């Protein structure tokens, strides 16, 4: 490295008188100089205290080992005389450092060349654009020169100048050396006045090093020091590296360390008045890996947001772990999954595919393919029926695509209602507001979702001709507002015998919309009508089995009525009775094992029971009056209507052979239903009246089975024809 014509600059920078400070180290730069006989160059020296701080103004004494070869001045300027090698030393406070100066034979002088013509330089750009140095640290600037004609210019002589020679000096070739802490500029100027400038910052000589490294036998690494005050800049020039035990690790020029054999040693780095220490461990030879999970098993599926441990352990020939081996891990796409070296865990961040690669010098890399799959939200139910004012809490589970719960995954679930006027939702708690249907949706932050159909229903279903459209519609009624009949299905057809499914989200009914009366299904809001039966006869009085999968009903063919059963999808129809005299009004027990029905097979209508498959038919009532419309209580008791001799009716609860009269009316009860909890029953009673002709005037009454509270009368309009109420 050539450093010339800097004597006056450094002398000015170090002109202040030295203070009484302990000198811990002297450093000379450059450490080697090559000159021809008759040439001159310049060496720089600095003294450092024990803390590595430069001692401004320290007295430096310069010595030459052979003044016939090279002499040195008090300012460090070196002059070459005879060919050979001389050692130039700088001494201060008992400390010393040296530079090896080699003098070669002088070259013959060349004839004077004519002066170069003035070049029209238009711009000078210096590279690098900014420099950070330590005191006595050299650097070289490259000047890029542009000319007016854009041709490649000849070599253009430049004049180099430092804005503050106390901070940094520069020679005629653009070689800079840091002098003392501060900030200055270096300018390169052409003869026509065009110049380029670069900023130079010189900081206090402080560097840090790695604490420790691990190598394999024969492995190499490049050591470096960093300058914290200069954004962690790597520092390699001006440093001396030595190993305390070269049988463990040796050093090559430039800080390259080579592992020699198993063990531990210390590498010292010296320079700029400081000493750094790096612990170097050379581990035992590695024979193979223990890998978890096995990369050979194929892609690893990870639900998004989950964490999984990946490990590649180095083993010796006996399969034992080799301590201190550094295996590097790299995630192919950190936006998909990010690896933590500290915990050896991979965290899935977004849906996609990436790779995780483990590397150890001397071995083929281990590559895992990682598929980050979505975490779905699964609600604990798909359909919910509520009454106005009811509240129900939904549970949301986070599951993988196979439906298995993903452990350790938590995340906010966003809840929304398509129609908040019908039902609202907050943190999974649904509150019913008004009659109708809405969709409650739960969505994860990564876009997966699940939803539940919510039906807010009335307490009672009835059939009525209130719409005056020529048909009989299905309406729902809330006991809190008995005077309001809300239409569910009101068209020109006659729609009767509407009953809720066990979960109250569907309605089965009988309708003549296709000519004869058939069984139909619809959603609880009156949508999605589906035909269940299509026989030539009539199918009426449907009731659900407790599992909601089948319908028991009354089938009328060729003037005979029989009890039958069919799947709600219209499959597997079976006739359960076959006697004459009429079999009507089926009811299914809460456990789904029994069917109660009314039959006139003995001449008078009585209540019968049979198994749900039609076997073991047995008579329950034997009375001279007509018994009909049986209903089951949860404990197996029966509720039914029986006629009285005066044309009225009694509502009977029968447990075994014991009969209890719950109510008695003067008018004939034509329809009877029991609530699912057994606490209320509703009956429809009618009497004939004259209103310009023979008509029936109905009363619709709801009463408690325990006799408590007053009856609720559902007001009907004059002449309104009503039928088949149910809960």
Describe this structure in words.
- With 727 residues, this protein is mostly beta strands.
- The strands form 21 sheets. A four-stranded mixed β-sheet has the order 2-9-8-5, with no helix packed on it. The chain has a four-stranded mixed β-sheet with strand order 11-18-17-14, with no helix packed on it. Strands 20-28-27-24 form a four-stranded mixed β-sheet, with no helix packed on it.
- Strand 8 and strand 9 (95-104) form a beta hairpin.
Task: Tell me the layout of helices and strands.
Elements: H1 7-13, E1 25-29, E2 32-36, E3 40-42, E4 44-48, E5 61-64, E6 70-72, E7 77-80, E8 84-92, E9 95-104, E10 121-127, E11 130-133, E12 138-140, E13 142-147, E14 159-162, E15 168-170, E16 175-178, E17 182-189, E18 195-202, E19 208-209, E20 212-215, E21 220-222, E22 225-227, E23 233-235, E24 240-243, E25 249-252, E26 256-259, E27 263-271, E28 274-282, E29 288-292, E30 300-303, E31 307-309, E32 311-315, E33 328-331, E34 337-340, E35 345-348, E36 352-359, E37 366-373, E38 376-379, E39 383-387, E40 391-393, E41 396-399, E42 414-417, E43 423-426, E44 429-432, E45 436-443, E46 449-457, E47 460-464, E48 473-478, E49 481-489, E50 495-500, E51 506-514, E52 516-523, E53 530-531, E54 538-544, E55 550-557, E56 560-567, E57 574-575, E58 583-588, E59 594-599, E60 606-611, E61 618-619, E62 627-632, E63 638-643, E64 649-655, E65 658-665, E66 668-674, E67 680-690, E68 694-704, E69 712-714, E70 722-726
Brief synopsis:
The chain has 727 residues and is an all-beta fold. Helices cover 1% and strands 53% of the residues.
């Amino acid at each position: 490295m050539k450093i010339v014509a800097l004597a006056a600059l450094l002398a000015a920078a170090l002109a202040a008188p030295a203070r009484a400070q302990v000198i811990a180290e002297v450093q000379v730069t450059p450490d080697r100089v090559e000159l021809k006989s008759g040439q001159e160059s310049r060496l720089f020296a600095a003294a450092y205290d024990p803390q590595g701080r430069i001692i401004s103004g320290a007295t430096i004494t310069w010595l030459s080992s052979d003044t016939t070869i090279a002499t040195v001045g008090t300012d460090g300027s070196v002059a070459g005389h005879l060919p050979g090698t001389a050692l130039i030393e700088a001494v201060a406070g008992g400390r010393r450092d040296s530079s090896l100066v080699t003098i070669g034979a002088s070259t013959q002088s060349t004839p004077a060349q004519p002066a170069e013509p003035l070049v029209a330089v238009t711009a000078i750009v210096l590279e690098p654009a900014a420099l950070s140095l330590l005191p006595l640290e050299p650097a070289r600037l490259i000047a890029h020169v542009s000319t007016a004609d854009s041709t490649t210019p000849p070599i253009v002589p430049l004049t180099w100048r430092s804005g503050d020679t106390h901070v940094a000096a520069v020679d005629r070739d653009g070689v800079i050396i840091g002098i003392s802490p501060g900030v200055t500029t270096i300018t390169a100027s052409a003869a026509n006045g065009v110049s380029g400038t670069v900023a130079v910052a010189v900081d206090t000589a402080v560097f840090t090093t790695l604490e420790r490294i691990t190598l394999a036998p024969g492995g190499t690494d490049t050591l470096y020091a960093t300058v914290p005050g200069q954004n962690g800049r790597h520092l390699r020039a001006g440093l001396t590296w030595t190993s305390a035990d070269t049988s463990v690790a040796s050093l090559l020029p430039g800080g390259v360390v080579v592992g020699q054999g198993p063990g531990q040693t210390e590498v010292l780095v010296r320079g700029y008045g400081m000493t750094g220490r790096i612990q170097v461990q050379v581990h035992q030879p590695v024979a193979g890996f223990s890998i978890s999970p096995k990369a050979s098993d194929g892609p690893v599926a990870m639900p998004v947001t989950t964490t999984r441990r990946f490990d590649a352990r180095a083993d010796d020939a006996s399969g034992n772990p080799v301590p201190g081996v550094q295996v590097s891990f790299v995630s192919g796409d950190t936006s998909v999954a990010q690896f933590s070296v500290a915990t050896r865990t991979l965290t899935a961040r977004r849906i996609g595919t990436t790779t995780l690669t483990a590397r150890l010098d001397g071995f083929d890399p281990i590559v895992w393919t990682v598929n980050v799959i979505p975490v779905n939200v699964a609600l604990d139910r798909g359909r919910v029926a509520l009454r106005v004012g009811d509240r129900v809490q939904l549970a949301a589970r986070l599951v993988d695509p196979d439906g298995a719960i993903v452990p350790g995954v938590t995340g906010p679930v966003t809840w929304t209602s398509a129609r908040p006027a019908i039902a609202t939702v907050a943190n999974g708690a649904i509150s019913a507001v008004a009659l109708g249907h809405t969709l409650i949706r739960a969505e994860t932050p990564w876009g997966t979702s699940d939803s539940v159909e919510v039906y807010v229903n009335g307490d009672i279903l009835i059939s009525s001709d209130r719409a005056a459209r020529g048909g009989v519609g299905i309406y729902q009624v809330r006991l809190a507002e008995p005077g309001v009949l809300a239409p569910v299905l009101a068209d020109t057809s006659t729609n009767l015998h509407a009953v809720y499914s066990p979960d109250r989200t569907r309605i089965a009914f009988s309708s003549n919309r296709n000519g004869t009366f058939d069984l139909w299904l619809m959603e609880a809001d009156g949508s999605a009508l589906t035909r269940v039966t299509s026989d030539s006869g009539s199918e009426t009085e449907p009731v659900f089995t407790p599992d909601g999968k089948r319908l028991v009903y009354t089938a009328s063919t060729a003037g005979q009525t029989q009890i039958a059963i069919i799947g709600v999808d219209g499959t597997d129809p079976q006739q359960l009775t076959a006697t004459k005299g009429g079999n009507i009004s089926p009811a299914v027990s809460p456990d789904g094992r029994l069917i109660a029905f009314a039959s006139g097979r003995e001449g008078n209508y009585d209540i019968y029971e049979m198994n749900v498959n039609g076997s073991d038919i047995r008579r329950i009532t034997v009375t001279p009056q007509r018994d009909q419309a049986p209903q089951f209580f949860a404990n197996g008791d029966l509720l039914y209507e029986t006629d009285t001799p005066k044309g009225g009716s009694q509502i009977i609860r029968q447990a075994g052979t014991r009969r209890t009269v719950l109510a008695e009316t003067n008018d004939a009860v034509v329809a009877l239903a029991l609530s699912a909890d057994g606490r209320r029953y509703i009956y429809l009673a009618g009497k004939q009246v004259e209103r310009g002709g023979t008509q029936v005037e109905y009363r619709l009454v709801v009463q408690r089975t325990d006799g408590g509270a007053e009856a609720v009368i559902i007001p009907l309009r004059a002449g309104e024809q009503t039928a088949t109420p149910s809960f």
